[in-house]
Amino acid sequence: xxxxxxxxxxxxxxxxxxxxxxxxxxxxxxxxxxxxxxxxxxxxxxxxxxxxxxxxxxxxxxxxxxxxxxxxxxxxxxxxxxxxxxxxxxxxxxxxxxxxxxxxxxxxxxxxxxxxxxxxxxxxxxxxxxxxxxxxxxxxxxxxxxxxxxxxxxxxxxxxxxxxxxxxxxxxxxxxxxxxxxxxxxxxxxxxxxxxxxxxxxxxxxxxxxxxxxxxxxxxxxxxxxxxxxxxxxxxxxxxxxxxxxxxxxxxxxxxxxxxxxxxxxxxxxxxxxxxxxxxxxxxxxxxxxxxxxxxxxx
Length: 299
Prior knowledge:
With about 300 residues, this protein is of the alpha+beta class. The chain is built from nine helices and 13 strands. The chain has helices at about 20-40, 75-85, 95-100, 105-110, 130-140, 165-175, 185-190, 235-245, 285-299, and strands at about 5-10, 45-50, 60-65, 90, 120-125, 140-145, 155-160, 180-185, 195-200, 205-210, 225-230, 255-260, 265-270. It has a five-stranded antiparallel β-sheet. Strands 2-1-3-4 form a four-stranded parallel β-sheet, with helices on one face. Helix 1 crosses helix 9. It starts with a strand and ends with a helix. The relative contact order is 0.15.
């Protein structure tokens, strides 16, 4: 007998935080919107850290990834846990789609399925070429280097010819242990910002515009970026919904980050299917849409 319908997953520091700043309060509020929406569907809900050693995961029908924001720093441990827990209960989104989405090689799959991505070069683990060799081959002037498995802008570097030499050591150290992706610097992300479109059960619900602080290129609020309500065009909505349809399987929730690339085409920046911030505080009804979809699965 299952005791819970849904367990909402967070990380250890956000279970019962003793000190609450604005960032932490946002996490608590976001998870609470989802919890209340699920409870309004008459579901029995619990919120736990994904690495809670005392909980029997077979006692819940589903687990919902929400604020598991330490997984990319503990990926080996998380991966083993993911493999084990997927035999005990059902994951939202599924283990299959999580493993696909965790690695930025998924962008190649989207491109093959007709979704436009910006110019991207994948450098595989163990590559012996220097960063300069690679940059010269692809004729890059200013570009961004980041790991294929990453989060919160971990090891994300904006590099040009004047800073190339000092990043050779960083690149050499990283590529020995993990695959990397190189993309020409996208100037419109700084000029116009990046749009995040939330999609629940395959349908668009709401959007925000993320703008980097002056002098930076990273739009994440961790680095001083700002978030604004945004009304997308129908073209942007269609693009986001089509990107979700192009996934390995249809996710129950998704955040589609898009921007205008250097060729003035709408392009995917990231497709977030694991534990994205979904800005329910900007549109609480979107949490209701997510809860309705989960209720249908349980029913």
